[in-house]
Each structure stands twice: as C-alpha cells, then as structure tokens.
C-alpha cells in the first residue's frame, strides 16, 4: 500500500493561492537516490518565478516546489552507498543541470526524493532552519563575491537590494572578508538592521536612486565592487557607482532582464562586469565550514509551518522581509 505525505501542491500557475496543502503519495527513491525527511525548506525568488510561470519553461502539473532543503535521510534507494538512515543532510538543489523544486518535486513537503550525489553531511546537532538558507542565498552570494568577484579585505563593496536573502548574505560575507560594506536599502528600519550584521554605511533610497549617495560616500571615486541582482530597475545606478578599475557583479535580475547600459562607463572607468551563476557544491562546502566555525549565522526573517505556505509566499512577495523565510512541516522540530 502506498504511503502518503502532506505537500504544498500546485495544479496551475498563479498567486500564493495556487499552492494548496494536500495528501499525496510519498515518493519512492529510485536508483542512486535517497528519500529525505524534510526538516526545513527556505524560500527564494525562484520559488515565486516557478509558481507564477516562466516564459519558455514548462512545469508539468501537478507540481511541488521548494529548492533549499535540509533534513534527515529516511530511506536509501538501490545503487547508493556511503550514507546512513537518520543522517542529517543539506541538499545541493542543482544536479544533472536541473533545479530541485523546478524540474523535480521539491521540499514544500514532508519528504523529498533526491540524488544521493547532492547530499552534504551536517553536524548531528544540525540547525536545520539555518542550514536550509545556504544554497540559493548564501551559496549564490559566496560564489559571486569570492569565486567570481575576488573580493579583498579593505575594498569597498556596495550591495544593492541589501535586505533580501542574497543581499543580507552579501553584507554578512562582505563584512567577514574585511570589506567596507555600503548597503543600499529602502527604509531606515532596514538600514538599522543591516548595520547590526556588518554594514559600515547604509544608503536609504526607496526610489532606487542610490548612485549619488554612493558617489559621495566613496569620496566621489565609486566602489571597488558593486553587487546588483535587481536588474533593470537599478542597473544604471549601479554602473555609476563603480570606481575606475572596479567590478560590477551580477547574479540575477529580479526586476527585469532588459537593462539600459551606457557604454561610456565601461571604457572611461575600465570596469569589469562579471556574471555569477548560482553556486557550485564546493561553495556550499566552504560555507558549511564557515558556519561550523560560528563565523556567521544566516539571518531568518520568519518561520512558517507548511500549512501556512500561502502566508509565507505573501510575506516574501511583500518585500518587507529582512533575511530568509523558512517553511517547516507541521509538527517538525527543526531549530
């Protein structure tokens, strides 16, 4: 007899109401896979894009989203070795060129079947809520700043959209690297919180026009490194904020992909524009080591039970959150 589980099921694209918690068949791990009992699943903007529907991307229905998952190994499928039932793990959500929660059913559920190759071991006393925040937010930030951006101690770093998941991660990791962090945000309340996690200075620009303030804060020189994953709404301001010989880093475009570029800034300031695409498994391993040394803790905005997945989505879309939103299956102790 098939065993069941609770999952937030999407049967058609739409708003938060498109997700309904239902009882569905629990997945069975196939060859090379394990079944993970979900302890926590953090939300990202990708979850919203998948729910809304993306041009050119067909998501077979019904579908269960959720990319960033931490939990325990519940079952082991055929052709899997080197793992144990009950072991705490973080899932690297990107494997075989596809994303968990997009190409495969994800972590908005009590259980998820994943490739055993995508498992990263966690300490026995794992803080699942915090670890679930690593891949999409902190993994992306780490690769962008360090692997691609080569951020150095003493450099100035401007973070655009600093109060969201990736932005907060950039502020924390930039401060840890010894950079002088300038965080751009939309309110004084968020600015105050950004200072507590490592921002040296904050620019409050609810209209997105932060360039002039950054220019003045940097002695009319611009910053060594500017991070922009917002896209069309802020790209011009970001170009203006880069110093001569500086780097402009981009890992996404949440406000739109079509951005105006004044090419004069590229040659007159001899700047580099560097793309950074997500993370690699080695980036996550580095972050796990950093967390084990208690060098930083992921910032959590709120934790919702799975039964309130619609409320969690609305909170994320409201753009009032600071840090990550995490969903845990009802009744699970995941702290």
UniProtKB/TrEMBL annotation:
For whether the record's keyword set contains NADP, the answer is yes
Keyword list (alphabetical) reads:
NADP
The family database entries (Pfam families) matched by this protein are listed as:
ADH_N, ADH_zinc_N
Q: Which GO terms describe its molecular function?
A: oxidoreductase activity
In terms of InterPro entries, this protein maps to: ADH-like_C, ADH-like_N, ER, GroES-like_sf, NAD(P)-bd_dom_sf, Zinc-ADH_QOR/CCCR
PANTHER family assigned to the protein according to its UniProt record, in alphabetical order:
QUINONE OXIDOREDUCTASE (PTHR44154)
Q: Return the protein name.
A: Probable Zinc-binding dehydrogenase
Gene source species = Castellaniella defragrans (strain DSM 12143 / CCUG 39792 / 65Phen)
Q: Name the lineage.
A: Bacteria, Pseudomonadati, Pseudomonadota, Betaproteobacteria, Burkholderiales
